[in-house]
Write a structure and sequence with these properties.
Blueprint lengths: L6 E4 L2 E4 L3 H7 L40
Antiparallel strand pairs: 1-2
Length: about 70
């Protein structure tokens, strides 16, 4: 099963938590050895600049100084 989780600082290390539904499905117990595959997720910036409006080309301000 695959899940997304965030890293946290714990002392001088990084820690991740495993969601309870995954723990129950896999039957995990405390002090068990598990294998974790790490893959950094790319950030999606779609919709990050809401309200900025459409780009409109302005007239050249230096045009009258020719």
């Amino acid at each position: 099963m695959t899940t997304l989780t965030k890293t946290r600082v714990l002392g001088g290390s990084l820690a991740v938590t495993i969601p309870i539904d995954l723990v129950r499905k896999e039957g995990l117990m405390e002090d068990e050895l598990v294998e974790i595959n790490i893959k950094k997720v790319k950030k999606n910036y779609f919709g990050a600049l809401k309200g900025i409006g459409a780009y409109k080309r302005k007239e050249d301000r230096m045009k009258d100084r020719e």
